[in-house]
Amino acid sequence: MPEKINLAEMTSPGIKSALESGYNTVVFAVGSNEQHGPCLPVSTDTLLGDALAYAVAEKLGNSLKGPTVNMGCSEHHMKFPGTISLGSETLKAVLRDYVGSLVRHGFRRIVVLPSHGGNFASVGEVVREMEGLYDDLELITFSDLLKFVSILQETSAKFGITPQESGAHAGECEVSMMMWMRGDLVREELIPEAKGFMGEFDAEAIKRIFAKGIGALSPIGVLGDPMKSMREHGEAYIDDLSAAIVEYINSQ
Hints:
The chain is 45% helix and 8% strand. The chain is an alpha/beta fold. The chain has a single domain (7-251), classed as Creatininase (Rossmann fold), CATH 3.40.50.10310. The longest helix is centred in the C-terminal third of the chain and has 21 residues, at 231-251.
């Protein structure tokens, strides 16, 4: 077993040895660099992706965690300074080259996990487009955004957090996860100012966000209310979400 499963921190000979030992799966996330309201950094979805991909790789076994793509499709956040957005075709081209590189080294199962809502459609599309492109490659993604959010909301309910409070962007859920992952980056003194859109996050809300920008729902760019955020909630979110994704992967 490799001492670490974080591919970016391993040496090239160490990765070769891991492959020869049966570590033929790579799990990597597709995050973003975009606004996350008053109290979270713009790297939130990338850091979330790091933690999620690592947890999934650990639970799968014989897997390495690949570097998270740290920019994504964030046009609907461009109203807010600091957001950097890639076009869908640009992101898909990056993912094709990323996957192609891993295949050339001998990896035979690759799991691509979008950790930012704006990436789910593009990731799903490119995975479908790549089906059959490589012999003996199992390429898997979890690209159902509403299901992703519903899994998180099931965890929220364990703590008495409503779906509206948990939110889908910089609400209780993401703030709790960031408290657990990188609490030093959470501006806790600004949490009372971070209550955003408290309506239902459904297909209609998603359509409005992508058509008019997240500012059409929340002037501060937040979906949810982080007032009840806690570090221990964050650990549970990652554990439950990664377990559900692993169950999905193993069912394919």
